[in-house]
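thread from #wetlab-drylab

HS: before we spend reagent money on co-crystallization trials with coenzyme A, can we at least see a predicted complex? here's what I'd submit
DV: go for it
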Amino acid sequence: MSRDVAEAVPDRSAIPVDPWTLGSFLDTPAPRAEAGVGLGVWRMEIADFGDDEHDVGAAWLDDAERDQASAYVRAELRRAYVLAHAAARLVVGTATDTPPEKVVWGRHDCPGCGEPHGRPRAEGAGLEFSLSHTPGQVLIGIADVAVGVDVERHPEDPVALANLLHPRETSEIQAAANGTLDGGRATVRFTRAWSRTEAYLKGIGIGLGRDPHLDYLGTDDAAGRVIGGWSVRDVIVPEGYGAAVAVLG
Ligand SMILES: CC(C)(COP(=O)(O)OP(=O)(O)OC[C@H]1O[C@@H](n2cnc3c(N)ncnc32)[C@H](O)[C@@H]1OP(=O)(O)O)[C@@H](O)C(=O)NCCC(=O)NCCS
């Protein structure tokens, strides 16, 4: 085993995070704003947001976000991007008493190369946030420490993708697919391990610049793990998806 490999210790006392639901941009009963936010996780169901909602949120984006949105060829990915950025602006803006269109979007430096493509940041906001979007779902996390979130759709063929993960996670997914490991379908196990790993790497800010082979976050149903000073917890999302949040400390 390489010295680089990190092992997450299961936290059996942890329970999955049940996110707050962000239901609308129109009649904005805004997400809860709290002083000293600790950790807040919001989920939005893309199907709940019609074209009117989309247009309200799209108007909050800055020029760079509009350019980025228009670079998506697939309409469902473009829509997920726009709604995720609008939601993040609303959540961060509410927590900092700033209108969503006035949130100044930036990026932390990448811990790998020092260039400004690490975690997203809101200039002057004094809080950390992370976002994840996939067709169907958006997840936003805000915290007063570094945070990473990830939501993923179940893959059609988890075994084909399993070797992207840590070798022990690969074995667990293969064993579940072969029926030699109880305690969760291969698909669910893949999505657990992937979303935990990606939340952790997004929290660090390196993203997939660090090989997902290197860290064992597990495919089992332990809702929480501790790795290298980070606490990683599963997030409750609808059937067909998996999600996790990683918080420093
Ligand atoms: C971050 C990353 C894991 C996202 O993967 P994904 O599953 O496609 O997308 P998600 O929806 O879950 O997350 C996307 C969001 O993560 C955030 N993000 C991007 N890079 C990030 C990073 N390094 N750290 C933390 N968050 C990051 C952004 O807010 C992004 O949203 P946006 O594209 O709408 O602005 C992936 O894009 C990545 O790792 N990129 C960097 C890879 C790399 O090689 N970097 C160079 C290191 S020197």
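DV: The chain has one domain: 6-248.
HS: ok that's useful, forwarding to the group
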